[in-house]
Amino acid sequence: MNRAALRPIDPKAYEPHALHRVNRAWVESNCYVDLWIEILHALGCEPVASLPYVLTIDWEGDQFTFFKPPHRDLDSLYGLDVQELNVYRPLVETAAAQLEGGKLVLAEADSFFLPDTAGTDYRRNHVKTTIGIQELDIEARRLGYFHNAGYHALEGDDFAQLFRLGAPDDPTFMPFFAEFVRTGRAVRLEDSSLVARSKKLLGHHLARLPSRNPIEAFAARLEADVEGLVRAGLPTYHLYAFATVRQLGAACELATTYLAWLDEHGEPGLERSAAAFAAISELSKAVILKLGRTVGNRKPADVSSLLSEAARRWREGTECLASRYGAGR
Q: In what helix (H) or strand (E) does residue 135 lie, and over which residues does it extend?
């Protein structure tokens, strides 16, 4: 019996949202953000309206914020209610029950069993990620799921391994975290109403901008980290880059897209901020490449000027927005 929260979707015919097209500098940002972009797209909602939260990215001491769409924003813009799922039974049984009620299941999963990660983690590395369970056929052992930049399917042994079918009772096994999404309450606002609500969220998030320049804080930490990264080698550097510069660059590219969307919907005069965040995105790519060569060749490289320019652009971009949409505006 095939169960689908929304409708049956053909992975081969599925068209990702424009935010996941190949002309993007950062086609993927992080698993939770990318997942929600495609869920909203499949629901017929505009995911770009939800992006004000990317502006609050901060340096968290050893990484940039793993930014995610706040549930309250998803409710405000799209009427979607997200709740934690109590996985007190096997996940496959719990997911089946939720899908029958028209609810998507967002579950942490092991990329080792996800064929869409072929070339990176599939059958190579055990890496935690989040998928959106949308279609499920237990008898046929087939799963349709949102993950990263698209919609995918898996079956057979991958299905059995992902859901631990037939696995003996293991008292040390801890179920992955899961949520469900009530899709029956989804609303699709007219453009004017969607823009108005999104601008309200923009003011809310601008009031929560970091109190210090996060790129300056990162630059200070990076100076102390480079020597250790060179010793550790490229595998460690790739993990470091994903947690740091990649999150910064992806967030700033999304911020650029959001400001362009506002401009298209009657909010002109945002070019200066948009250009500032676009510059940070490009500078982040340059930092990743230059540091990668440093680690690979074990030769010192100075990225301080790149980060100094990125920090200046962060001040420029956020100050312009805060003066226009900040608290009390």
A: strand 128-137
Q: Are 35 and 162 in contact (CB under 8 A)?
A: no
Which pLDDT score, from 0 to 100, does residue 1 have? 86
CA distances from residue 24 to 69, 243, 245, 282, 285 in whole angstroms, order as listed: 20, 19, 16, 11, 12
What is the rounded distance in angstroms from the CA atom of residue 100 to the CA atom of residue 105?
11
**pLDDT for res 23:** 86
Tokens of 17: 């949202």
Closest to 248 (Cα-Cα) out of 203, 299, 303, 314: 314
* Paired residues of 179 in beta bridges: 84, 106
Distances, alpha carbon 83 to alpha carbons 36, 178, 182, 267, in Å = 15, 9, 8, 34
Q: At what angle do helices 214-232 and 271-297 cross, to 10 degrees?
A: 20
pLDDT at 327: 55
| Listed residue (65, 106, 100, 52) closest to 82, CA to CA | 106
Residue 116 structure tokens = 């869409």
Please state the φ and ψ torsions of residue 64, each to the nearest 5 degrees. -85, 155
Reported as type and span, the H/E element at residue 222 is helix 214-232
* Positions of the chain with pLDDT under 50: 328-329
CB 301, CB 290: distance < 8 Å: yes
CA proximity to 318, closest of 77, 76, 69, 52: 52
Q: Tell me the whole-structure pTM to 2 decimals.
A: 0.94
DSSP string of 24-83, one letter each residue:
SSSS---HHHHHHHHHHHHTT--GGGGGGGGGG--B-SSSB------HHHHHHHH--EEE
